[in-house]
Design goal:
The chain has helices spanning about 60-65, 130-145, 175-195, 210-220, 245-260, 275-290, and strands spanning about 25-30, 45-55, 70-75, 80, 120, 150-155, 200-205, 225-230, 265-270, 300, 325, 330-335, 340-345, 350-360, 365-370, 375-380. By secondary structure, the protein is of the alpha/beta class. The longest helix has 21 residues, at about 175-195. It is globular and about 65 Å long. The model is unreliable at about 1-15 (pLDDT under 50).
């Protein structure tokens, strides 16, 4: 299933421009039985994509009833294998299903294991056998349970998890770039088979947008996928909000994806240094600054495991009326029902607005002062 929204072909043979896309734009992470009630909570009906565990198939009818427009994706890990999970593991394959050549090894031939997640053995994305078995297993279980697609975690342009340049050398891949190339090959081998089966394909691509090699490898995956997931949207796990080049380079990945006909899933973590409210505002405002208005992309927030839906998600400002513009380092973008303002600089900036708008804290305003690395979604 390709969730891309494309223009219809006119009688002349030319392709008409896509229509503006209204409706839900939220991304919800509920990939744990501890969070099974989140899709039925305060944000129900506002989500465009919901991420679940593969073992949560029995919940799909209720979740669909509460979120009829949402795509429901099952979590499946690419970069590693676990021993547990039965016939619905969180990894595409279990350890007991794998051949020795499907694992990564150190120089002495020992299997490598993640340092930061218990019980995850590193898999070789370049192994033809691993690719074929992963595709067959994931395709079968998702179709059987009725999922719309798969979120492929650890589809990384570098090994991570204390492996490669970050720790133990990998015998199969002398460089991180070689590992990243193998991941691109994995997507080329697996993505088309999933799409042909009617499934959406959403790799969670670990990469640094300012690294040319990682960016090129990420671009190389786009022909084989339907969604690009970026889980560190405008901050790391618990860092300050991005500014400067970190902000602009991250923003550019959304533009790259949407221009290639791929939907973009952006996830902001919190609470971060600025707190949950400011993190949500900055993440959502930055997303709205980049969204092309026609792709079925989505933004979401993940903090303490509670229902992330809140007032700063709620205002629906419609669709963009034009591109973003810069005023003294602050970026503004008009929407049919409001205005998006983002300050990615290191200084507070006051901005005069072209029309009176409603600030979530101050009410009606004609000027707004944005602290450094902050954003607002204003309603008209």
């Amino acid at each position: 299933m390709d969730s891309a929204i494309s223009g219809e072909t006119a009688a002349s043979g030319e392709t008409a421009a896509p229509e503006p896309l209204a409706g839900p734009r939220g991304l919800l992470v509920a990939q744990s039985w501890d969070h099974a009630e989140l899709p039925l909570g305060a944000g129900a009906g506002q989500y465009r994509v919901i991420l679940l565990q593969a073992s949560m198939g029995a919940l799909l009818p209720d979740i669909r009833a509460a979120n009829p427009q949402a795509l429901l994706f099952a979590y499946q890990k690419v970069g590693g294998m676990r021993e547990d999970g039965g016939d619905r593991p969180s990894t595409g394959l279990r350890v007991d299903q794998a051949e020795e050549s499907w694992f990564l090894h150190d120089a002495d031939g020992n299997r490598l294991i993640y340092c930061d997640y218990d019980g995850v053995w590193a898999a070789d994305p370049g192994s033809p056998g691993y690719r074929a078995a992963w595709l067959a297993a994931v395709r079968e279980r998702l179709l059987a349970d009725g999922f719309d697609g798969v979120m492929m975690d650890d589809t990384n342009t570098f090994p991570g998890h204390c492996l490669g340049s970050l720790g133990t050398p990998i015998a199969e891949y002398p460089t991180d770039a070689a590992y990243g190339d193998a991941v691109v090959g994995f997507m080329a081998a697996v993505g088309p088979g999933l799409r042909e089966a009617g499934l959406a394909v959403a790799p969670n691509i670990a990469m640094n947008p300012w690294d040319d090699t990682m960016l090129a490898q990420s671009r190389a995956m786009l022909p084989f996928i339907t969604h690009w997931m970026r889980e560190y949207w405008m901050r790391w796990d618990d860092s300050a909000n991005f500014g400067g080049g970190e902000w602009s380079d991250t923003l550019a990945t959304m533009t790259i994806a949407e221009e290639a006909g791929v939907d973009y899933l952006a996830l902001t973590y919190g609470p971060g240094e600025e707190g949950s409210v400011e993190g949500q505002r900055y993440g959502r405002a930055s997303w709205l600054l980049a969204w092309n208005g026609t792709r079925a992309s989505a933004w979401g927030y993940w903090g303490d495991g509670e229902d992330p839906w809140g007032p700063d998600w709620a205002p629906d400002v419609g669709v963009p009326t034009g591109p973003a513009e810069s005023r003294g380092g602050v970026w503004l973008r008009d929407y049919t029902g409001g205005l998006v303002v983002v300050n990615p600089t290191e200084e507070a900036v006051e901005v005069a607005l072209d029309a009176a708008s409603t600030d979530p804290d101050l009410g009606p305003v004609e000027r707004v002062t944005l602290p450094a690395r902050s954003g607002r979604v204003l309603v008209r």
